[in-house]
Amino acid sequence: MPPRIEKHSKEYKVREIQKNLVKKARLKKDYFKALKEEGYAVPDKKSSEAKLSYKELKAQNAVGNRQKLDEKKELKKMRGRQQHDKALQRQKYEQDKVKEVRDKEKQRNVRSSKVTQRTRSGQPLMGPKIEDLLGKIKADDTYTK
User: Fold this and answer.
1) DSSP code at position 143
2) Which of 105, 108, 125 is nearest to 116 (CA)?
3) Where is this region: Disordered (predicted)?
4) Residue 144 lies in a domain
């Protein structure tokens, strides 16, 4: 095998990692030995916490991911509800506006029919006209102060 391929092979990398680990362990051992000879206190070994197994890690990640998904779904539902509520509110507002316009149109037609009443001989009746003018005056704020 050419040296380039050998250098980038999996086995070569495994060997290098093992060499580095052995070297670090030897240096650490020599360092602690030198400390002990010079009279310094050797630090205690760290108690290595038991690492979680692959299955436990996977289970924890699954639970966390499931919670995130549930939160996203809930957020999406809430947005959907808000949009639905807005649409209903807008629709109700438009219906109210249309109803208001129709009511005004009816009132206008009733008022106009009252004002345009005539006698048998074709003369306009003054009573409904005067009533209409009085109603306008009462409804206007400038005259009710």
Assistant:
1) G
2) 125
3) 63-145
4) no
